Q: What sequence folds into this?
């Protein structure tokens, strides 16, 4: 049976993957309230289409941090792609390059950053950092990413500790025994006997540390995981270049707002001075359109990429991206938008509850 929407890939992955891998990907924190609300919140928003606007040509291209992409859709950072496909992130990177979109590579990618860059040398990639307690290691990781051509540094701020994922605890999930954790140091500095390590994220990191990151890299810095106007204002005060409104796919603090519900507060706070992106619960072209109408410059998808990998590796991810891009084009056409610039808040309404 052919898979025609992202939910089909989800159903296929659930059947195909082992229970512990499926649960690891699918899981949210605690009651999974926010994970599910990320999806439900999109469905509470209604569209207001406009007609008779000559939509014979529709252009989905846009830019992020000055780089052109084929559509405002990118790949959110997720770790351990080798869980779902043997060559993991190398397949993801190739698919992203073919689709001409941005791939945010996780600190906990199961392939080396060098292999990922070699697999898709022309692709637009950003590097996601979980700040490590060892400053030198952070510096090394960032410099490696920079020299491998990654174009932005995405610092994830919503993981001072890992969220409480009940299914992983029940399953006794141990990523170490799956040999998925890698030595984060540069190839030169590793021990002859590979030491698998995943140092915990540094919980002491705070706003004042941003100037240190800015002092060691030329890359634009983007904060991932901001949900409030207070933090959006601090992000601007500390001169970051972008914000990803995200609740980590509902995997960190449960019962926070759905990403799409938090977007307006952040967009209003930044007043167009920096780019705002969104991830969490984006599953259809209409979802992409709604996020853009509310002020996101681009959206990123997490779990659907892993479903695509589980289906057919690189080609599965390509299919997921092509379906979402095609749906988004249709959403634009049916609402009368010929270009990204024509997408605005008039396209949506929030029904009275
Ligand atoms: C299996 C899995 C692993 C993830 N790993 C990371 C990670 O390494 N770094 C990070 O910043 N976010 C990570 N995330 C969060 C995603 O970047 C993103 O915020 C979330 O998946 C978006 O929601 P969606 O899955 O509904 O699209 C992970 C999410 C999942 C599901």
A:
């Amino acid at each position: 049976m052919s898979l025609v929407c992202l939910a089909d890939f989800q159903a296929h992955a659930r059947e195909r993957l082992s229970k512990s891998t499926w649960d690891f990907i699918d899981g949210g924190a605690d009651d999974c309230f926010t994970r599910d609300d990320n999806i439900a919140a999109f469905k509470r928003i209604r569209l207001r289409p406009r007609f008779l606007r000559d939509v014979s040509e529709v252009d989905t291209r846009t830019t992020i941090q000055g780089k052109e992409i084929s559509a405002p859709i990118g790949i959110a950072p997720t770790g351990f792609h080798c869980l779902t496909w043997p060559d993991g992130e190398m397949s993801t990177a190739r698919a992203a390059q073919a689709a001409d979109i941005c791939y945010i590579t996780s600190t906990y990618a199961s392939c080396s950053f060098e292999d990922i860059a070699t697999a898709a040398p022309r692709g637009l990639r950003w590097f996601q950092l979980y700040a490590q307690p060892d400053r030198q290691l952070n510096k090394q990781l960032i410099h490696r990413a920079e020299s491998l051509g990654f174009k932005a540094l995405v610092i994830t701020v919503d993981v001072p500790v890992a969220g409480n994922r009940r299914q992983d605890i029940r399953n006794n999930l141990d990523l170490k025994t799956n040999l998925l954790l890698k030595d984060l140091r540069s190839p030169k500095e590793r021990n002859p006997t590979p030491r698998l390590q995943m140092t915990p994220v540094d919980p002491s990191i705070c706003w004042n540390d941003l100037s240190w990151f800015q002092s060691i890299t030329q890359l634009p810095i983007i904060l991932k995981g901001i949900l409030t106007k207070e933090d959006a204002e601090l992000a601007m005060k500390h001169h970051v270049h972008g914000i990803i409104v995200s609740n980590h796919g509902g995997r960190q603090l449960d019962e926070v707002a759905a990403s799409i519900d938090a977007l307006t507060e952040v967009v209003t706070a930044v007043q167009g001075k920096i780019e705002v992106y969104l991830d969490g619960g984006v599953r259809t072209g209409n979802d992409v359109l709604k996020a853009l109408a509310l002020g996101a410059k681009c959206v990123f998808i997490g779990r659907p990429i892993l479903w695509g990998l589980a289906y057919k590796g690189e080609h599965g991810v390509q299919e997921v991206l092509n379906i979402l891009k095609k749906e988004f084009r249709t959403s634009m056409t049916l609402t009368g938008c010929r270009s990204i610039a024509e997408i605005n808040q008039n396209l949506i309404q929030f029904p009275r509850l």
Notes: The two ends are 39 Å apart (CA to CA). The first strand starts at residue 46 and ends at 47. The chain has one domain: 6-349.
